[in-house]
Amino acid sequence: AAVVTWLVVNLPILTLYPRGWYEFFRLNSERGADSDSLLRLAAKAVGTTWDVPILNIVSFGLMILLVIG
């Protein structure tokens, strides 16, 4: 059901505006944690900052764990 929903939402945009669709995902892959995100709060509590590639890996891993769970 999740894959079908993702396709229903994304496929029309990808078809009509492919450059914009790719740009959205490209820009999101380069941005850091927002100041109100749980990952930023966790990093601040530990006294560190995460580089964007590490942040992407951590957030992707957490998403996979939530999907599996």
From TrEMBL:
It comes from the Bacteria. It comes from Gordonia desulfuricans. This is Uncharacterized protein. Keywords: Membrane, Transmembrane, Transmembrane helix. The chain crosses the membrane at residues 50-68.
